[in-house]
Amino acid sequence: MTKRNKILIGIGSLLILVFFVFEIVIMVKQENASEAASSSSSSTSTSSSSSTLNAKYTTSELNKLDLPQLSTTIGSEETKVTIETTDGTIVAKIFNKYAPLAAENFLTHAKEGYYNNLDFFRVVKDFMIQSGDPDNTGLGGKSIWASGTHKNKKIDSGSGFKNEISPNLYFIRGAIGMANAGTNTNGSQFFVEESSTNVQSEITDKSSYPTKIYDAYKKGGTPSLDGNYTVFGQVISGMDVVDKIASAAVKTNSVTSEKSEPKKAIKITKIIVGKEGAQ
C-alpha cells in the first residue's frame, strides 16, 4: 500500500468518525427535547410560539385588551381562592370570564375537597410547581365532568376537556395554568409559574404580545407555553411561598423518571373559595 493510499484511507476514516459523532449529538439533542416535552403531565418548549400567537390581532388591538393578571384587584367576574399549604398560604384569583371551563373545574374540585392533602408532586426551580393529581405521580386526575354528579360527555368524553386560549391571559410569573398530556386533555392537574428570570429574549415576535405583558416577562414566566396551555388564574399574594416550594430538594419520580419530586412531601391542606364571579 502506497503512502498516498494510507493517507486517503486515514482521511476517509476520520470523516466517517466525524459523521457518526455528529449523528450522536443530533440524537442526544432530539432525545433531550423529547424528554422535556413529555415530562409528567405538563410540557414546555425551548422556543417561543409567538410567531403564530395572536396572529389575528394587531399590536394596537392587543394593547386595548383587558389584562387582569396585572392587577391584584379581584374583579366582578373573578373568584378569590386561598390555597393553604404545608409551606404557607397562596392567594390567587381565578378568571371565570376568560377560562370558564378551567375555572369551573378548579373551583368545583376545590369546594368539594378534591385537592385537600394532595402533594406538589412536581417542582422545577425557575419553572413551576405542580399539583392536582390524586395519585401524586403526574399521571392521574380527572375533570369534574369525567364521572360522578357533574358527568358531561359533551365537555369531557373521557380524555379531558378542551384548552381555552385567551389573548387576555399569559404565562407570566405567578400564572396558574392547566397541566395536561396534550392538547384538549385537561383534567385536574394545575401548575403555578415560578420563573423569576427575564425571559423577553425567548419572545421571537414582540408584536404578538400586548406591550404590558411583554414588559411583565422581565419578571419571569414561560412564554413558550402561551397559546398551548390554558391560563385560568394568577397568584396575587404568596409568591414567596411558591418560590419556597420550587426550591425544595428533589428526588427522581419513580413513575416519570424526572428529578422533580420533593424529598419531603409538600401538601395542599385545603383551598378556600371566596365569592364567585360569573361562570
Give the SSE layout.
Layout: H1 3-38, H2 59-62, E1 78-85, E2 88-95, H3 100-111, E3 118-119, E4 122-124, E5 128-131, E6 175-178, E7 190-193, H4 211-216, E8 231-237, H5 239-246, E9 250-252, E10 259-262, E11 267-273
Antiparallel strand pairs: 1-2, 1-11, 2-8, 3-11, 4-5, 5-7, 6-7, 6-8, 9-10
Task: Walk me through what this model shows.
Residues 15-40 and 42-48 have low confidence and may be disordered. Helices cover 24% and strands 19% of the residues. It has a nine-stranded antiparallel sheet with strand order 3-11-1-2-8-6-7-5-4. The protein has a two-stranded antiparallel sheet with strand order 9-10. The chain has five helices and eleven strands, in the order ααββαβββββαβαβββ. With 279 residues, the protein is of the alpha+beta class. The relative contact order is 0.22.
